[in-house]
Every structure is written in C-alpha cells, then in structure tokens.
Amino acid sequence: IDVGQGDSSVIILPNKQGVICVDTFNNVDYLKSLGINKIDYLILSHFDFDHTGSIDDLKENIKIENVVYSIYEDSTKINLPSAKILKVKSGDYLNFKGAEIFFLGPINCYSDSNSNSLVFKLIIENKSILYTGDMTIEEENDLILKYKSKLNSDVLKVGHHGSNTSTSSKL
Predict the structure, then answer these.
(1) Nearest-CA neighbor of 119 among 107, 103, 108?
(2) Are 132 and 119 in contact (CB under 8 A)?
(3) I want to staple 153 with a disulfide (CB 3.0 to 4.6 A). Which of 30, 38, 91, 130 is the partner?
(4) pTM exceeds 0.85
C-alpha cells in the first residue's frame, strides 16, 4: 500500500477467506475502503513508528484477531488486549487457510530494532513473497548462511524501504 514514509501490506486470501496485514502505517482508511472490518493476522516486522504508527487507529476501527511479532521485541510497546499475541522466532511456522508463513529471522538478538526485524516467507498458491522489514546487512548475512537457497522467492519486499543499509546484492 502507498502509505507515504512508512510500511504496510495487505494480503487478502483467495475467495476472501481471510486477511493478513503486514505492518500498519497510515493504512486504516484504505482497509476500510476495501470493506475490511477484521484482520486475521497482523504481522509487525518491528516496532519502529513507520511500521506501527497506525496501531491505535487500527484497533479502534478494525477487529484484530492475532498479532505476530519477534520474540526480541519489547511487548510492552504494543497494547492490543483483545488480540491473541504470537511471539515468533527463526524456524517457526504458521499455516492459515492455505497461506504458509515461514519465519526466518531474526536469527539472533541484535542491538538495534531494524536488525531485529521479523523476516518471513509467505507462500500462497505456490507463489512466494519474502518480507524483510528493515533488516540490515548484518541480519541478511546471518540469514544467507543459515537458509541459503530457501530464501529464493517470487517477490522480494526490499529491506528498509530500499535504503543502502539492506537488501545487498548478495541477498
């Protein structure tokens, strides 16, 4: 979604079986315009404002069933008492109505929020998207060493809004 200086993606499963939202910045009006009144899974790559800035507006206007984020994030920063919280780590897996989500990173706990971005591969109907949040080259290198060709995807959501701190040519 074009949200300006932030990040958000919306995945509507085939036959409108469910909705997965990745990050939430400036996206509530768009979701409402699509008639979305429930998000099955809200995946937060990390807690920087440009990825979570609309969370209060979102929870006031749209029902959120599940919130997914990295075990390395500070859970006190997100207040969604009505949602089920899923803290995930590298190697975790989620299957939701045929959408497979393989959580790949972060592998380690890094010193900054961007490096702790949740990295995952979403597969729907044999098509894959690799979401990288704002991961840095340090996290990329760890992922490449661990997962190698398993990172191959049909679509790459470039890291850190396309900045030169991530999405290296090696990746």
Answers:
(1) 103
(2) yes
(3) 130
(4) yes
Contact (Cβ atoms closer than 8 angstroms) between residue 167 and residue 139:
no
Assess contact for 21 and 8: CB atoms under 8 A. Answer: yes
Residue listed under structure tokens 């990173």: 105
pLDDT in tens, 6-29: 688 999 999 889 999 999 987 889
Give 106-165 as a DSSP string.
Answer: -SS--SSTTTT--EEEEEETTEEEEE-TT--HHHHHHHHHHHGGGG--SEEE-GGGG-TT
Q: Report the DSSP beta bridge partners of residue 38.
A: 63
Looking only at the bridges linking them, the beta strands covering 9-12 and 84-88 are: unpaired
